[in-house]
From TrEMBL:
The lineage of its organism: Eukaryota, Viridiplantae, Streptophyta, Embryophyta, Tracheophyta. This is U3 small nucleolar RNA-associated protein. Residues 241-259 have a biased composition (Basic and acidic residues). Pfam families: U3_assoc_6, UTP6_C. Residues 2-29 form a coiled coil. Residues 9-89 form the U3 small nucleolar RNA-associated protein 6 N-terminal domain. It comes from Trema orientale (Charcoal tree). It is found in: Nucleus, Nucleolus. Keywords: Coiled coil, Nucleus, Repeat, rRNA processing.
Length: 654
């Protein structure tokens, strides 16, 4: 092994001498380069070299070659300033290409060792492409030979032939070979079509540049949409000069029959042929049909309307039982997420068309999934009109969409397609439109009948009751408090703390002035946390209760409260952090017990979370700011002794 490494290093002598002779590296730097290369070469000669060994060597050589180029430019600049022509004085030598050759060689060794690593092959190809290396074609052939079933390699090879070599015939042959090997690859079919259309568009652009043709195969979507809307609403427009309009149309009609755009015809023929082959190879793919439709929509071809109708009719024939098809078809008419630049009249017209598609879908496919998709569309339309999450004060057409959505939820419940998610949406929507009483009635009905086991709906019902009490009564009666507490208690007992976060906060706020009920809530929280433990990150129930007690009753009661929580089996890191912050803030305003309690909390937390770096850092910062140099040093040396990840000790916080 040592002989092989030494032999490879000796082959670098000419390159290193050239680097020193041209003043790009000093002798000391060259010695360091030799040292690093020897280390990497020994790694590669191990019985089982790792992929990371090859990548590290490549990274080092890449950075070294970049440094060489920068220094070469610097030397050239200095010689130019002295009036010396650098190009005449120094021609290209061995050091100019040795680095790239070495990197290519390392890549070759890597891919031979890890033939199945596609990512490594693509790295190799990208490097050859960026450096315009002559082995690109050979590497592509090797990659395809080892991985003929990877469509991305065929696409990459065809793109390189098409863009770099400008060899359309070779690119087409590669795409067709790829389709023979991978006939079910949707990406290959689409990229083949795009390549052919791009080539036709380039030919047409050349004709336009020569003055022999005009236009392009790329369709302007905005102009097409406006033209379609004007055609559909032709009765709204009156021409200013009927005679001129007529004469213009006559002249166009005279020119059109004799004028056939060869490129548009050829593009249509190409799309129809490739589409037929793709559908035959992958008949069950809805995504493939959608992508063909998107390509057709983006280009201006002859008979494109006929082709569009053919694709839509075949999709309806093959995918009418799939909700995703109907959702796509409706959003093809109007998508609330893409309305930029559309006029109000066009938006209303397109929305009505989309609603008609969804209504037809419900007749063909009355399922819970279809109702859910339709409801999301209507919600998107309503929010688009209002521009807010709270929907109120809608009128006219906007109010019609609200009634559509409410009717949709009721229809789903009537025909038995209501699900827990739809029921939750229905109740929440009543709340959004400001109809709290109807939301309460619906929640009570659904929770007591069909969804009696749904924790999600019971949480929503309890939240609505709390909202009703706090909205309608400034000082709730004892009966109201008792009934709402009973409901909240039942729900909180069933649900986990993480799911019932909003209800816990609502209940704590409602009963914060009711000592008896607040204490019962605390007892309930202790039982829940003792069973499931508190959170280390995110919402912490114990922290929320401690903060409520601190704001209402002061620090002494808050300390008693957090001691109760810290005595539980799994208190969680969040409660420690919250209490430490509380005591630290008090210590900063000269509270005599604050610093002492903060230290106790840190020590208690570190017994459980001894490997938490941020906890040690915060403890060290506390001692730096409020303690002495001795206590800060003691914390630092303890952290250094206990932490397994000692790299964290060199951060600025330490």
């Amino acid at each position: 092994m040592a002989d092989v490494v030494q032999y490879r290093l000796e082959r670098m002598v000419n390159e290193l001498d050239d680097l020193e002779r041209r003043g790009l590296f000093t002798r000391r730097e060259i010695a360091e380069i030799v040292k690093q290369r020897r280390k990497f070469e020994y790694r590669l000669k191990r019985p089982s070299p790792l992929k990371q060994d090859y990548l590290a060597y490549i990274e080092y050589e890449t950075q070294l070659d970049s440094l060489r180029r920068l220094r070469k430019k610097s030397v050239a600049r200095e010689l130019t300033n002295k009036g010396i022509d650098y190009k005449k004085k120094t021609k290209k030598s061995v050091s100019d290409y040795a680095g790239v050759v070495r990197i290519v060689d390392i890549y070759r060794l890597a891919v031979m060792r890890y033939k199945g690593d596609i990512d490594l092959w693509f790295r190799y190809l990208e490097f050859c492409r960026e450096r315009r290396h002559g082995k690109m074609k050979k590497v592509l052939a090797q990659a395809i030979r080892f991985h003929p079933k990877v469509p991305g390699l065929w696409i990459y090879a065809a793109a390189w032939e098409f863009d770099h070599n400008l060899n359309v015939a070779a690119a087409r042959a590669l795409m067709q070979s790829g389709l023979r090997v991978c006939p079910t690859s949707e990406e290959l079919w689409i990229e083949y079509l795009r390549m052919e259309l791009t080539y036709l568009n380039k030919l047409k652009a050349r004709k336009v540049a020569l003055g022999e043709d005009e236009g392009t195969l790329i369709r302007d979507k905005k102009v097409a949409d406006d033209k379609q809307w004007r055609d559909e609403n032709d009765d709204l427009f009156m021409p200013l000069n009927d005679e001129r309009e007529k004469n213009g149309s006559d002249s166009e009609s005279k020119e059109t029959p004799g004028k056939v755009d060869m490129f548009r015809e050829q593009g249509f023929s190409m799309l129809r042929t490739i589409y037929a082959g793709a559908v035959e190879a992958v008949p069950s793919s809805l995504v493939l049909r959608k992508r063909f439709f998107e390509v057709l929509d983006a280009v201006d071809l002859a008979h494109s309307e006929d082709m569009r109708n053919q694709i839509l009719s075949e999709m309806r024939r093959d995918f009418s039982t799939e909700p995703e098809y109907w959702n796509w078809l409706a959003r093809l008419e109007f998508d609330p997420e893409t309305t930029e630049g559309m006029s109000e009249e066009l938006m209303l017209s397109q929305t009505e068309k989309a609603i008609q598609v969804y209504e037809e879908a419900l007749k063909v496919l009355p399922s819970a999934t279809m109702f859910n998709i339709y409801s999301k569309f209507l919600m998107g339309v309503i929010l688009l009109r209002k521009g807010e999450k709270v929907i109120s004060g809608l009128s006219g057409q906007h109010a019609t969409y609200v009634s559509y959505l409410l009717g949709l939820y009721e229809k789903a419940e009537t025909i038995g397609c209501i699900t827990e998610d739809l029921a939750y949406q229905h109740i929440s929507f009543y709340l959004q439109v400001g109809r709290l009483d109807e939301a309460r009635k619906l929640a009570d009905k659904l929770c007591c009948e069909k969804f009696s086991d749904s924790i999600q709906l019971w949480l929503l019902k309890a939240s609505l009751e709390v909202r009703h009490i706090t909205r309608d009564f400034l000082s709730p009666t004892k009966y109201d408090l008792l009934s709402i507490f009973g409901l909240v208690k039942d729900v909180l007992t069933k649900a986990s703390v993480s799911k019932a976060e909003s209800l816990w906060l609502m209940a704590l706020k409602l009963f914060s002035t009711q000592k008896e009920y607040f204490n019962k809530l605390v007892d309930l929280s202790i039982v829940s946390l003792a069973k499931n433990g508190d959170s280390d990150n995110g919402f912490s129930l114990s922290s929320a209760i401690v903060n409520f007690v601190f704001q209402k009753e002061g620090i002494q009661n808050a300390r008693e409260m957090y001691k109760r929580f810290l005595a539980l089996p799994h208190p969680g890191l969040a409660i420690y952090r919250n209490c430490i912050e509380l005591e630290t803030n008090l210590a900063s305003v000269s509270n005599k017990d604050g610093l002492l309690n903060a230290r106790k909390l840190y020590e208690s937390a570190l017994t459980t979370y001894s490997q938490n770096v941020s906890l040690w850092q915060n403890y060290y910062l506390l001692e730096t700011k409020m303690g002495t140099s001795e206590t800060a040093s003691a914390v630092y040396w303890r952290a250094r002794k206990i932490l397994k990840d000692t790299a964290a000790l060199i951060t600025p916080d330490f």
